[in-house]
Amino acid sequence: NEGLYSCLPQAKQLLVLVNPQGGKGQAQHLFYSQILPLFTEAAIGFSLVVTERQNQAWELVRDEDLSRWDAVVTVSGDGLFHEVINGLMERSDWQSAIKKPLGILPAGSGNALAKSITYYAGNDAADYQDLLTSCTFLLCKGLVVPMDLVSITTASGKHLFSFLSFAWGFISDVDIESEKYRMMGQARFTLGTLIRLSSLRTYKGRLSYLPAAATSDESSSFTSSQISQNIQYNFCNSNNLQHLQSCANAVEQTSAVSVAEVARVVPLDQPIPNNWTIVKEEEFVLVLALYQSHLGEDLFIAPMVSKPDDNLIHLFYVKAGISRTSLMKFFLDIEKGKHLEHSYPHVVYVPIKAFRIEPFTSNGTMTVDGEVLACGVVQGQLHSRLARIISG
Ligand code: ADP
Ligand code: MG
After folding, report:
1. Which atom number of ligand 1 is nearest to the Cα of residue 19?
2. Which homologous superfamily is 2-148+222-254 in?
3. Measured between alpha carbons, how far is 41 from 30 in angstroms, rounded to an integer?
4. Is ipTM over 0.95?
5. Looking at domain 152-215+264-386, which of 3.90.1150.10, 1.10.8.640, 1.20.1080.10, 2.60.200.40 is its CATH number?
6. Does 182 sit in the ligand 1 pocket, CB within 6 Å?
């Protein structure tokens, strides 16, 4: 695996994908003004691709000769990164392709993964006021760590891979409806939340899940969590060759995630297994499955997540009956990550490994990593440490 031996001190080559439409439409400008100077300082080489349309990055990484690159980096929001993950997973050599170190530099309106990475990095990132500078610094430092992914399967036969979130109800509505306020940056979510609160609705369906407590790492055959080694390594400025080689060997051993492991925990057309929990209520304001700490720069929803491979899906759902005032308070608390300290009788949190949602009607929206998915029967399950991210 050439990528591993690029740990050796030599100029790194990044494939950098920029979405000029991301966020306030400033991604390209941000690249030249804020990112390029740090790349130059760190002696990082790159090839820049400015996308011209949606899904171009998806197709590009699906067909690209990846051996040319030490890492693939997106400059946009979470949507462009979602394209890269799914492009890699569509390759016939996905098992090795998905191990390519990936990086994300925030230039979108939804920068949840970038914000989460700086949270995991703690003090390393705290020196910088600006999220983009923090992330560029961490990228140049180049610590590569494993990251869990969640596969999403729909009854219509669609397969997607997700690194951030699955949402149904209030949150996906806000995400989609606020797209038109993209020029406001992340403030679009605050405005969208206020608009949605004024016309609060509920979503009917059956929610079931495999609780994390019902599985042990040994018995959850659909994860690759048997790997106990610490497989972190620095892809830049490391000069201890022996250490690098032992890291590289550890990484080699983890890259064998078999097709069986990516197969479904239970096929979608099969009944819900006995060790799953079926939620008694069938009317919700929102259902959210999150696998990073943040759902947006100001949406600190899962403070218990401290790394991108915590081997859990964090399920939050809000039952119908919550008042507008409570829901508003809940969202205000989320900004500070304090929502779990206060008691909200309609809000439930549970750590899980897989979930299934069977909506009773198809009107409503679902989102995967903030991207729209037609509302329907859907199942998600965790794949421990499937991808790798340059993190703090
Ligand atoms: P934001 O955080 O601002 O939403 P994203 O990275 O999520 O930024 O990108 C928004 C959407 O734009 C995503 O659906 C992505 O797939 C799509 N996209 C990527 N490149 C382009 C492009 N060149 N033109 C239009 N849309 C694009
Ligand atoms: Mg987006």
Report:
1. 20
2. Probable inorganic polyphosphate/atp-NAD kinase; domain 1 (3.40.50.10330)
3. 16
4. yes
5. 2.60.200.40
6. yes
Q: What is the pLDDT of residue 246?
A: 46
Average pLDDT of the residues in 170-186: 88
Residue 76 beta carbon below 6 angstroms from any ligand 1 atom:
yes
Q: Which tokens in the block code for residue 312? A: 């859990």
Cα gap 175→41, rounded to integer Å: 37
Q: What share of the chain has pLDDT > 90, as a percent?
A: 69
pLDDT-derived band at 224 (thresholds 50, 70, 90) equals: very low
Q: Is 178 in the pocket of ligand 1 (CB under 6 A)?
A: no
Return the ligand number nearest the Cα of 84.
1
At residue 311, φ and ψ (nearest 5 deg) are 65, 30
Q: What is the pLDDT of residues 299-311, one digit of tens each?
A: 999 999 999 999 9
Pocket mutation for ligand 1, best pick of 54, 82, 160 (most atoms within 8 Å of C-beta):
54
- Provide the total of helices (H) and of strands (E) in the chain, helices listed first: 14, 16
